Amino acid sequence: MDEKFYIDETHEKKHYDKHHNNFESLGYVQMFDNLIDEFIEPNKNSINTALDFGCGEGEVLPILLENRNISCDRYDLFYFPKKIYEDKEYDLITSTEVVEHLANPLEMLKKLLSHVKRNGYLLLMSAFHPSDDEKFLKWWYIRDITHIGFFNMSTFKYLAKELNMKIINHNNKNIIIFQKQ
Hints:
Elements: H1 9-17, H2 26-40, E1 49-53, H3 60-67, E2 71-75, E3 90-96, H4 105-113, E4 116-125, H5 133-138, H6 153-162, E5 165-170, E6 175-180
Parallel strand pairs: 1-2, 1-3, 3-4
Antiparallel strand pairs: 4-6, 5-6
C-alpha cells in the first residue's frame, strides 16, 4: 500500500484495542489449537522454545504453547514492547496476523530469522490474497486500515528463496510454516 495511506501508531493502537482476542473468545482459542495441531505438533520433537512475535494483548497462542510444554516468550509493539528476544535464539517463532502490518516485511523477517536456530521454524499467519484483480478489490482483508501489505503463495515462495528457508507446510489460505536452512 502507498505510504500516504499508513496510519500513525496512536491510531493503530486504538484500532488494536478494539480487538478482544482472549480465552473468552472460544473460536479464537480453537483457531490456535487447530494451528498448533496441524503446523507445530508434527515438528514438536525439535521445538522446546518459541517466541510469539506480535502476540497481542490476550497471549492466547503463547499460553497454549506453554500448555504443550513449549516455553514461549512474548513480544508485541504495543502490549509487550520489551524486546526480550534480542539476545536469544528459538526453535520456533510465530507471527500471526502481523506481517500484513509491516512497512518492510522482508527486513523484519530477516531480523526474526536471526533469532531462529538452524533447522528451526518460522510460522506466519496472514490471509493469502486472491490472485484475480477483481476478487482482490472486493476482498475484505484490504478494508482494514492497518493492513498495508498482502501475501500469497507466490510471495511466500519468493521470501523462502530470499531468506534461505524451506516451506514445510501451508493451508493455501492463511498459514505457512518455514524451516530455516
